[in-house]
Amino acid sequence: MLxxxxxxxxxxxxxxxxxxxxxxxGVFWIGDCLAQRHKGKVYHGYNAAFLVTGTDAxxxxxxxxxxxxxxxxxxxxxxxxxxxxxxxxxxxxxQETPHCGGLGRILKxxxxxxxxxxxxxxxxxxxxxxxxxxxxxxxxxxxxxxxSFMAVEPVIRDLRTTWWGFDTKERVxxxxxxxxxxxxxxxGHCGLVAEEAVSLDLPDVSxxxxxxxxxxxxxxxMNVYCDRLDHLIERLGVKTIAPxxxxxxxxxxxxxPKVQAGLKAAxxxxxxxxxxxAPVPAx
Length: 283
Ligand SMILES: [Zn+2]
Ligand SMILES: [Zn+2]
Description:
Blueprint: H1 15-18, E1 21-24, E2 27-30, E3 33-38, E4 41-46, E5 49-53, E6 58-61, H2 69-81, E7 87-91, H3 97-100, H4 103-109, E8 114-117, H5 122-125, E9 133-135, E10 141-143, E11 148-152, E12 164-167, E13 172-174, H6 202-213, H7 222-236, E14 240-241, H8 252-267
Parallel strand pairs: 6-7, 7-8, 8-9, 13-14
Antiparallel strand pairs: 1-2, 2-5, 3-4, 5-6, 10-11, 11-12, 12-13
Bound molecules: zinc ion (2 copies).
């Protein structure tokens, strides 16, 4: 009897092996998924990183989760092997582990790189790299050769120290915890941009993420924040959105309203808490 042929589907190939993905010319999505359980479901999240490459220099945006460093290092080396400009800058949107968990290892592995953005407190964790830290304020830009990377207003943020980033050439917005939503591995969403993941209910997964990770959205009028987001997108002429936790958005007009619907819906629901809770035993 003949063995059944093994058919490899996209589901069998981990996303780490399918990256880097170029989401706009010279803008590469790198990293891996992170599986999390919530209410009996397995959600996948990203702690993505992005490499923006100019003619003279590249900038890494976010470092991924600590576990992601070997994957991110491999993806970057693959890109440098293809001839992209060397890493001269690292920008992290804020001081939280899924965003900056590889910071020390990046600065160690790429000794010519500078840490840019909000740099509060990093000198306390890494005094040996203090001389390589440069603070950025809103509107400050770094020339990469043929394109610039700018610090911009962080409308939806986790910490007060957050900055968002913007690539002036392809008009890509890097909003950190903005546009945060999970996806489903079983549905084949891993490695897709938002518009390709047609079975992903964006308002639903956006509201779940806001509920779990952005508690302040419960106490704010999210209509005001969504209006401000529209204003920023309009002012910068954003063409692509590269969030740290969500799938990249390549059709801003079609997709942004779906994420905003999730934020507005989550704001009206009571907070469920961040951990899966065991049932309380009867007294
Ligand atoms: Zn985050
Ligand atoms: Zn995934």
